[in-house]
Design goal:
Low-confidence stretches: none
Number of helices: 6
Mean pLDDT: 94
Distance between the termini: 36 Å
CATH class: Alpha Beta
CATH topology: Ribose 5-phosphate Isomerase B, Chain: A
Order of helices and strands: EHEHEHEHEHH
Strand order of the largest sheet: 2-1-3-5-4
Largest sheet: 5 strands, parallel
CATH superfamily: Sugar-phosphate isomerase, RpiB/LacA/LacB
Number of domains: 1
Strand content: 15-25%
Amino acid sequence: MSENTLRIVIGADHRGLAAARLTAQHLTSEGQDARILGECDGPSDYPDQAWLVAQSVSKGEADRGILICGTSIGMAIAANKVGGIRAAVVHDELTAQLSRAHNDANVLCLSGDLLGQRLIEKIIDIWLATEFEGGRHARRVEKIARIEQGEDPRTPAAAG
């Protein structure tokens, strides 16, 4: 594995599984270390796959996660319940770029029903290539982390 290779985990419910399989193939062909977690050929519940992927990213076992369900909304809601996760619902190239540049999203949530595979792959490629800008955005991401800790983001952070 090269130093530029990312460890990417993918999760999908039954409505996103076909797209997830094609996505894993695409990422592997691009030189990434991609694997599907909790793959199930029958009906499956999106919170189960969202939890598997979010836990893997949160624990540092993976660099990034991709979740695919019917709309991507349920996956994002479930994944964002896991500490350290910033899951973004993305439907186009611009929101893919901004979710990384401004929000440092570490989990990408995609719709298997609303997006074609070619667009899914374009979105993923942009999302993976985009770096977090930091600056004023870092302050905002830190406030999100404070909310996660049960703190009021409007109050000054304690000096550490």
